[in-house]
Amino acid sequence: MSDILEFQDISKTFGDHITKIDALKGINLEIKKNTLNLILGPSGSGKSTLINLASLLVTPTKGKILIKGKNTSKMSKSKRSGIRRNEIGIIYQRDNLFPYLTILENVMVPMISNDKEKTRKILKKVDLSEINKFPHEISIADQQRVVLSRALINNPSLLLADEPTGELNLVDSKRLINLIKEVGNKCAVLIASNNFDLEKYFDNVFSLQDGVLTNKE
Prior knowledge:
The structure is a single chain. The strands form 2 sheets. This protein has a 6-stranded mixed sheet with strand order 6-7-8-3-9-10, with helices on both faces. The chain is of the alpha/beta class. The protein has one domain (34-57, 76-215): Rossmann fold, CATH 3.40.50.300. It has 6 helices and 10 strands.
């Protein structure tokens, strides 16, 4: 089973010598194809920084980030952007939907090919039928289904999620995780959360405390 994402001795520091913050410290992580992975940690532990690094939105202070074996750490911004567009789908805690676009239009925003039929199919998979409604006309749980659809629209190799259940109750959280398992089963999934009730749904669980990552037994 091949690695989709690999962190090699990754550290991330913010600020200067006066205001220095070591957000991540020597992280080693391997995320393999067709696996569901969870990083658990409290607020401020470095989860969002880790997801931002994995999504190539920021670069590490030290170490290498490999996507499908390619070292991205020294790539240009345009090359990292291309990998992010073609290989990575991202879900954030806040839905980040465009309020004046319909559900269908929101999902189509990052599409490489302008394919409405493909968009309708993926919305059907997540059980959303009222595709011409606007985000404010549907529930928060359904908004996260829209975000999931948008993250998967380009068939990514890696699906990343930062606190995707943060605004959902336990029932809707479990439904979303099960839906991610169902429709995202062809890619590697990495989710960062502080919801310890979800860990039984994952293949691999890691603990992140004060920027240090460990396998959770």
